[in-house]
Amino acid sequence: xxxxxxxxxxxxxxxxxxxxxxxxxxxxxxxxxxxxxxxxxxxxxxxxxxxxxxxxxxxxxxxxxxxxxxxxxxxxxxxxxxxxxxxxxxxxxxxxxxxxxxxxxxxxxxxxxxxxxxxxxxxxxxxxxxxxxxxxxxxxxxxxxxxxxxxxxxxxxxxxxxxxxxxxxxxxxxxxxxxxxxxxxxxxxxxxxxxxxxxxxxxxxxxxxxxxxxxxxxxxxxxxxxxxxxxxxxxxxxxx
Amino acid sequence: xxxxxxxxxxxxxxxxxxxxxxxxxxxxxxxxxxxxxxxxxxxxxxxxxxxxxxxxxxxxxxxxxxxxxxxxxxxxxxxxxxxxxxxxxxxxxxxxxxxxxxxxxxxxxxxxxxxxxxxxxxxxxxxxxxxxxxxxxxxxxxxxxxxxxxxxxxxxxxxxxxxxxxxxxxxxxxxxxxxxxxxxxxxxxxxxxxxxxxxxxxxxxxxxxxxxxxxxxxxxxxxxxxxxxxxxxxxxxxxxxxxxxxxxxxxxxxxxxxxxxxxxxxxxxxxxxxxxxxxxxxxxxxxxxxxxxxxxxxxxxxxxxxxxxxxxxxxxxxxxxxxxxxxxxxxxxxxxxxxxxxxxxxxxxxxxxxxxxxxxxxxxxxxxxxxxxxxxxxxxxxxxxxxxxxxxxxxxxxxxxxxxxxxxxx
Lengths: 240, 410
Prior knowledge:
The structure holds two protein chains of two kinds. By secondary structure, chain A is an alpha/beta fold. Chain A has seven helices and ten strands. Chain B is of the alpha+beta class. Chain B has a six-stranded mixed β-barrel with strand order 3-4-9-6-8-7. A two-stranded antiparallel sheet of chain B has the order 2-10.
C-alpha cells in the first residue's frame, strides 16, 4: 500500500468542537486512479488536507510508502510535501506575477536544484503538455485549461508519489474539463502516477477507476469503476 | 539557504509589482535618513562657521589689561591709573613656569593704510614674535614676524586679509613692497589669512601687525604695555592660574588684593567651554530628530509590509503547499524589508551628500558641510539593522500562514 490511513479522527475546535472525520480507514495502492466524492461538509476537504500533509489529525495513523506522517514539524511537513506530493487546485493557484515556466520551476527552487537544471526540466514538462510556446506568458494571459495544465506540470516536476487534485475541473467549462481529465487519465495509464481526485462532480469521478464515497466523516461505499459508466460528463451531475 | 539569482529575483519581483507602494514606503526611510544626514552635515557646517571665530586661538589663554583701581590701598587713593609694563612680562615668566607663553602687546587704532592710491582703515598691533602661539596665523604669502625683526626694530608688517585685498586689489605676492601706515612706511613681509574674531585688537582681517619694539618707539610708549597674553602649558588649569597671576601683578603695583576693578582679566577657557556645550546640545537635538524621523520611516515600512503579507496570504500559502519551509518565507519577507530600506537609504545618502555639496558651493567652499565617510558607513549599518527590524514582525506573521489558508481564501 502506498497510502494507508487507519482510524483517522479530526476535530476542529473553533469555539465549538466540530468532529469532522470520525475514523477514516483507507488504503490506496501505487498507480491507482481514485476519486473521493462527497457533498460539501462531508469532510472530503479535511481528508484531502490530511492526505496532502497540509493539516494534522488527532487520532489514528497515516503512512505514505511506509513512512508515518504524524506530528511533523512545519519544516518536515514542507519537506515531505515537496518530495512526495503534487497539488492541483480548483483555482489553479498559480502565482500571478510569475511566468508559466517560473511557476513550474518553483518546487525545484525550494528543493535547491540549480537554476539551469530546473529551467531545463520545467521546459521539458511544459513541452510535454503542449505549452512550450506559453512558457514566458503570465497566468492571466492563458485560458483556464492552459493554467490547469501549467499547474499539473508544476505538481509533477518533483516526481511525487501522489498527485492530489482538489476539484481540478471546478473552474473549467465542460469541454476543458474533459481535456484535463483525459490528461490525468493519460498520466495514470502511461506513467503510472498515483492520482487522487477530490470532487463532488460525478462526471469527474467517472473518469477514475475507483470511487470512494465519504459521508458525514466516514467512508461510505467504495465503487470500482473500471468500466467508466457510473455517470458520464454532463448527464446527471450534481453541480454542472 | 538558496543564494541563487532567483532569490533576488523573487524579492525584486514582489517589490516592483507594486511600484507606487514600494516607492512611498521607501520614501519614509529615504526622508528619515536624508533628514538625519542633512542635519548632521548642516550642524557640522554651523559648528565650523562659529568656531571660525575662534580658529587658531589657543584655548588656554588669559588676556589682561590695566584699568583704574577700585579700592584705596597703602596710602593710594582709589581711581588711580596704573599700567602694565615690560617688567610684568618678565615677572610672570619668572614666577609661573606653568606658562608656555607670556607676550605683551600694544595697539594703535583708527589708522589709514595707503598703497599707490588705495587706502583702507585699519588698526595696528605691535606684537612679539611669540604671539603666533597665542593666535596661530594663517600665512598666505611671506612669513610672520621673527625675533630679528624685533631686535633690529625693522619697519616690517604682516597685513590681514581685508587689508591685503584693499591695498593690493590686483592680487599677487605683496611681500617686499612698502605701504604707508599712518605716517610711517612699513615693508610688507607677510599676509595673514587668519579669520579669528577673538583677536584682542579686533578682527585680525583688518589688522596690521608690526614688531612691538617699533610701534613702542613710534608711539613713544616707553615701558607701558597695552595688554599681556599668557598661554598655559598643556594640562595647566587656567582658571586656577588666573587668581595667582592677578595677585602677582597686584603685589608689584601696590594694588589691594581684593580689588576686582584694577585689572581686567579675561580667561578664554570658560568661553570655549560654553561654545562646546552649546554644540553638544545641538548635536543631541540633531540625533534625536534624525533618529526619530528614521524610526518613523522604519515603522512605516513594517506597517506596509504587514498589509502586504496579509494581501499575499494566498501566494504564501501556495509556496508553502509546494514545499517552502517557514524559514524560506521568513527569509524572503525579511530580505524584502532589507532591500527596500537599503535602496531607499542608499539613495538618501547619495542625495544628502549631493545637497550638502550644494551647500558648500553656496558657501564658496569656505565651510565644510559634508558628512564624512565614517558617518555614511554608520548610517548604512544602521539602515541594514532597521531593515531587518522592520521586516521581522511581518515575516513572523507570514511564517505562520498555513498552506490551507491558500485554499480557504478562494
